[in-house]
Design brief:
The chain has ten helices and 16 strands. The chain is of the alpha/beta class and 359 residues long. The protein is globular. This is Pilus assembly protein PilM.
């Protein structure tokens, strides 16, 4: 079984949610007040140089570990327990049906036997975990079990990063599961608590945009697309003759020429809206479905002015930004204006931080 606890462990001590993407490291720490409301106690983001993380793989270990140390220091937290995540591409997950009433040890034996059918590696090479989801809907008396497996070197890379940054890794999750946990709170805020609603969740990263279509906590479709916020940086560099590094800095600081909004930003936002519309169209043509009830957009580029409107214009579906801190109390150290501006970037890290309270 996995060495650092569990992909699905439930932790009650203070816990940091730490999301490592291709462009940044993001940290969230949540608490609860006397009324049971979530409190955003800490959050911080630290940029990564291009090439530190490629396709979820750690290419520059020392640089990433240093960025993790900086983001912890910047947040001001004293918590060292951390929940991290692997990209979905590094984890094999399967739902299986097993007899109800098995002991933990009997479940382990059954899971290992089943896992051999689905995992294209020797079980000696993987970290394997499972979680009982609940009674099976299709088989009376049986339970539905989720199996998750990842190569040990991928798990050890994340564990090593945490330890190099002075942190104690308690939970290793899957990025798409963590983002879905945070998005679940937002879906519950839709009409009728989001029951039976088809929600398309787009996370716009630097180089890749991931799409999940969710209904009643089930993912009925998921796909990655090769477009993201880095394309805006390229457009800025090309338009104004900046180096890629200069363009990235100026994009973050807003130190751009007067014609930037009209000449570069607006066309890019429209293009992003078109890409999201194409991704939805592909979903409709490859499944029996022909509509969604709501579109949520997260990630670093989600807060670009006019994106939600552009998506609605291109798709006719209602679109909103995924603010994972919606309805939460903000702690004394949190700067609200900055938090709201960056909130869609924190979807995965917030989902990881919520693992502290998962039952």
């Amino acid at each position: 079984m996995i060495s650092l606890g569990s992909l699905f462990s439930r932790q009650t001590p203070p816990l940091l949610g730490l999301d490592i993407s291709s462009s940044s490291v993001k940290l969230v720490e949540l608490g609860r007040d006397a009324d049971g409301r979530y409190v955003v106690e800490r959050c911080a983001i630290e940029q990564l140089e291009r090439g530190c993380i490629t396709d979820g793989n750690i290419e520059k270990f020392d640089e990433v570990a240093e960025a993790m140390r900086r983001v912890v220091k910047k947040s001001g937290t004293r918590t060292r327990n951390v929940a991290m995540a692997l990209p979905a591409s590094a984890v094999i997950t399967r739902k299986i049906i097993l007899p109800g009433g098995l002991s933990e040890q009997e479940l382990e034996v059954q899971v290992e036997a089943e896992a051999n059918q689905y995992i294209p590696f020797s079980l000696d090479e993987v970290s394997l975990d499972f979680c009982v989801m609940g009674p099976s809907n299709s088989s009376a008396g049986d339970v539905e079990v989720l199996i998750a497996a990842s190569r040990k070197d991928k798990v050890q890379d994340r564990q090593g990063l945490a330890e190099a940054a002075g942190l104690k890794p308690l939970i290793l999750d899957v990025e798409s599961y963590a983002s879905r946990m945070a998005a679940g709170r937002l879906i519950q805020g839709l009409p009728e608590g989001g029951l039976d609603s088809m929600v398309a969740l787009f996370e716009v990263g630097a180089f890749t945009t991931s799409m999940q279509v969710i209904r009643n906590d089930d993912v009925i479709y998921d796909r990655d697309q090769a477009f993201g916020g880095a394309q805006l940086t390229q457009l800025i560099a090309r338009q104004y003759g900046y180096s890629p590094e200069e363009a990235e800095i100026k994009k973050r600081t807003g130190d751009l020429p007067e014609d930037y909004a009209a000449a570069v930003l607006r066309p890019f936002v429209e293009s992003l809206g078109q890409e999201i519309a194409r991704a939805l169209q592909f979903f409709f043509t490859s499944t029996p479905h022909n509509r969604v009830d709501h579109v949520l957009v997260a990630g670093g580029s989600a807060a670009l002015p006019g994106l939600a409107e552009a998506v609605t214009a291109q798709t006719t579906f209602t679109c909103s930004l995924a603010d994972p801190f919606e309805g939460m109390v903000l702690g004394d150290t949190i700067r609200e204006k900055k938090l709201r501006r960056e909130a869609p970037s924190y979807l995965t890290s917030c989902g990881l931080a919520l693992r502290r309270f998962a039952q």
